[in-house]
Design goal:
about 25% strand; alpha/beta; 8 helices
């Protein structure tokens, strides 16, 4: 089944404003690259077959994304003003933004916990416009739309955009945002039920989308059992601790587990064994962290249908066999 992968990529395309007219451009350069790689093997028959396959794939994405554009909360990238900026933990900045168009009342928006917005910006030390996805950290829009950015100094680009947002964007500044997107969201059929616990597992900045899920669950049904697990380097890196504590206090049946790696506290398979099964599980963090959690849950015979996660690449199948 490729539909989950198509939907996930479709959300990314809509967030980045990939339109039908862009697909022929991509196809042209893709076929050019194939010809270059294959050399003499790039016969007319081979290239025509690739072109036909690409056209089929493009038509699927265009159709899926057409509905996503229709359902988007707003069209294209529009300017928002930063009305609040907070540092939580040691390396995460939480931004609250309001549309510069005063006629656009975001307090009426019904945000989906787990989704992300896309920032379009022109960072210093760059010759190009840059676009990045950042998770919503709240579904509450009374003060504006809230999202969080971890300062990234580890990747090849040395956190071009994240450092720009941390160091150069302050209250009163403007940011271009596209509407929320993404398919990482709570199972709506279970939110009002109390027999299958909600398990939220995160590490580092992965706390951001599951924080919004915790908020959404507590708002909708505080009676549902909730198990919260968060891992980070140490107490200094512990993000959103105060906000999480307040939300957990509003729930009636709660377990909270905090793991600091530098103190030898490990969120591992031994801890996963303590979880109820069945459970509605959501995992977010680094790829290595998610792989470890998902492998552990599958080894403990949790159903793949009950394990949800936010990847930074295509989703894998969790089916067995």
């Amino acid at each position: 089944m490729l539909l989950p992968q198509v939907m996930q990529i479709g959300h990314k395309h809509r967030a980045l404003q990939i339109k039908p007219e862009h697909y022929p451009i991509v196809g042209k350069h893709l076929l050019g690259a194939i010809k270059e790689v294959l050399g003499e093997g790039a016969t007319d028959e081979v290239i025509n077959a690739w072109a036909e396959a690409y056209d089929e794939i493009a038509s699927v994405f265009i159709k899926v994304e057409e509905n996503m554009y229709k359902e988007a909360m707003w069209s294209g990238f529009i300017p928002f003003k930063v009305v609040k900026k907070e540092i939580t933990g040691s390396d995460i900045a939480a931004f609250t933004v309001q549309p510069e168009d005063n006629s656009f009342d975001v307090s009426r928006l019904a945000l989906t916990a787990g989704q992300y917005i896309t920032v379009k910006t022109d960072p210093e030390d760059s010759d190009h416009i840059a676009l990045r996805h950042y998770s919503l950290c709240s579904v509450d829009t009374n003060e504006g739309i809230q999202f969080a950015v971890r300062r990234d100094n580890k990747n090849a680009h040395r956190g071009l955009v994240s450092n720009h947002l941390h160091d150069n964007v302050e209250v009163g500044d403007s940011l271009l945002l596209s509407a929320p997107a993404g398919d990482f969201e709570l199972n709506k059929s279970l939110i009002e039920q109390n027999d299958i616990p909600l398990v939220l597992i995160s590490a580092g900045v992965g706390v951001t989308p599951v924080l919004s899920m915790l908020e959404a669950q507590v708002r909708a049904n505080p009676q549902r059992p909730i198990i919260w697990a968060y891992a980070c380097q140490n107490q200094d890196y512990h993000a959103f601790s105060g906000r999480v504590d307040k939300l957990l206090q509003q729930a009636e049946k709660v377990q909270s587990h905090i793991f600091y790696f530098e103190e030898g506290q490990l969120l591992n398979e031994e801890w996963l064994k303590t979880l109820p099964n069945p459970a509605d599980v959501y995992v977010c963090g680094s790829m290595a962290f998610m792989d470890s959690m998902i492998d552990g849950l599958m080894a403990l015979e949790h159903s793949g249908d009950n394990i949800h996660y936010e990847p930074f690449g295509p989703k894998m199948s969790l089916s067995v066999g």
